[in-house]
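ok posting inputs for the zinc ion job
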Amino acid sequence: MHEINAGSYSVFFNEHGTTELNRLLAAKNYSKVFILTDTLSNECCLDKFLPTLETISEIEVIEIENGEYNKTIETCVSVWSILADFGADRKSVIINLGGGVVTDLGGFVASTFMRGIDFINIPTTLLAMVDASIGGKNGVDLGHLKNQVGTITNPSLVLINTVLLETLPADQMRSGLAEMLKHGLIYNVDYWNKFLDLTTLDLSDLDMLIYESVLIKNVIVTQDHTENGIRKALNFGHTLGHAIESLFLHSHKAILHGEAVAAGMILESHLSLSKGLISNVEYLQIKQLIKGLFGTLPLSGEDQDKVVQLLAHDKKNEYGNIRFALLRGIGNIQIDETADNELIYSAFEDYNS
Ligand SMILES: NC(=O)c1ccc[n+]([C@@H]2O[C@H](COP(=O)([O-])OP(=O)(O)OC[C@H]3O[C@@H](n4cnc5c(N)ncnc54)[C@H](O)[C@@H]3O)[C@@H](O)[C@H]2O)c1
Ligand SMILES: [Zn+2]
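and the output
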């Protein structure tokens, strides 16, 4: 349980990962090491991370403001400028130390600066550990449209150190849990079943659950780096989830990515049910477990209309058709499914009931 091979790079865990990180830095002999942080990863994680870092290269720390609102091209411009001012060159490396905002934005900054420099992801949130830091997708939001600009570029290494989660608030832990549940739903019913009775789980299980979640994400993305097939499975819960996330970000109070995805998973499970892809028993199990953890988001009729409008901007659309990755039984997926608005509205109706 130390290492997962992700093709051009590896995901390493805990102390062993630190050794591998230092080994990579020595082997690559980078001209400068830039550590990208945000307000809270800087405050909570930098002091834990820096003493473990062994390098003779010069280190510069860059801090951006925390929060999804800052995952913008304007923030990239300021980071690119800092890199240039501090003499970054093509032999420099960026270590992204933070949640998904830092790993997404830092990966994009690195993959475009001087046409691409190396970057390393050290995720500090549960969500970034099991999802955002793995698989090479990076990018920023464009206005209220999520992740509209970005690249698919692999990091040179990912280091998952669960000690960094000690300071993560409970709601952020829960947000990461949503993606772990997704991994079970789309790929492995045994993994999903582990969450059915959360009273049997404790913190000592967390390392193993994270490891298994990364394995699932990795096995999917390494089969389909550019998202032409199986990788679309990871979009389960995200077609509606992203639209709900955008809605709350701009019309209400921002909610966490995992909270939006949790609602999206219930709604898209209902679409799966309507299309005869899962049984009513499976649907009710999914709805009950996820609602038990996440509650119900207030989604008025007006909100539902806005969500349906936002779907038109989804990157997963092809030739104007909205595509869903739906469940085909728990643990399997059926990609490239369409659903008309009537089915979407009936999913909302059941979600609100
Ligand atoms: N690239 C991908 O494949 C992929 C996949 C999933 C999600 N994402 C993206 O990831 C982002 C969400 O990631 P997130 O949930 O990590 O959000 P985030 O990066 O905003 O982090 C959540 C909050 O936790 C704080 N934080 C980070 N580490 C902490 C720590 N150890 N202790 C205390 N506070 C800490 C952050 O400062 C922030 O305020 C979204 O932008 C989403 O689009 C990308
Ligand atoms: Zn997600």
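notes: The CA atoms of residues 267 and 347 lie 5 Å apart. The first helix runs from residue 14 to 28.
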